[in-house]
Design brief:
With 183 residues, the protein is α+β, with helices and mostly antiparallel strands. The protein has a single domain, classed as Endonuclease Chain A (Endonuclease, Chain A, 2-Layer Sandwich), CATH 3.30.870. Helices cover 39% and strands 21% of the residues. It is built from eight helices and eight strands; from the N terminus they run ααβαβαβααβββαβαβ. The chain has helices spanning 2-15, 20-23, 37-45, 64-75, 86-91, 99-104, 142-146, 158-172; strands spanning 27-32, 53-58, 79-84, 109-113, 125-128, 132-135, 150-155, 178-179. Strands 1-7-6-5-2-3-4-8 form an eight-stranded mixed beta sheet, sandwiched between helices. β2, α4 and β3 form a beta-alpha-beta unit. α3 runs parallel beside α4 (64-75).
Length: 183
Amino acid sequence: MRSRLALIMALILLSAPLAHSEKNSVVQIYTAPEMNLEEIDRSILDQLGQGARVNFADQALSEHIVIESLSNAADRGARIRIYLDPQEVERMTLDNEHPLVKLSRMRNVEIKLKAPGDGSMRLKGYSVNGSLLRIGSTNESHSGFERQDNDLVVITEKDAVGAFDRKFDGMWARPNNKKFSFP
């Protein structure tokens, strides 16, 4: 009886009209390794141009396809802020030709590292123009996209995007962050 009542209540709630702010929101869930998650990122980032804003948070950014898409967006005039974990970046083999190093030197791109000793940076996601949130367990790395069991979630619900942006702005403003530079 209790489960039947719960089922009836769930059906009533699901069939109720959505609030205006939720009518146009979308949640899309993608999983790896079944799907090519880097292509989903590419399809989002390759649409960005003049005036676009990206707040990008991740442990490390090592996937060259995603870096290329961010570079192309910056070339088209998008403003890109990237916040990374210093320990993960330290593990990377960087040189002047590394795509992340090249990205860091571009106009419209700022990269900050969380202060060492302030705990790990594990938030993985980005927002675009305050209207789209891409979040999930996927690391922006080759193995994260192709070999690990991960998810990538795209959300267009404004309150969710706003919550991410507020969190990102708080992390970005920390006085003990370090600006990424090489060497």
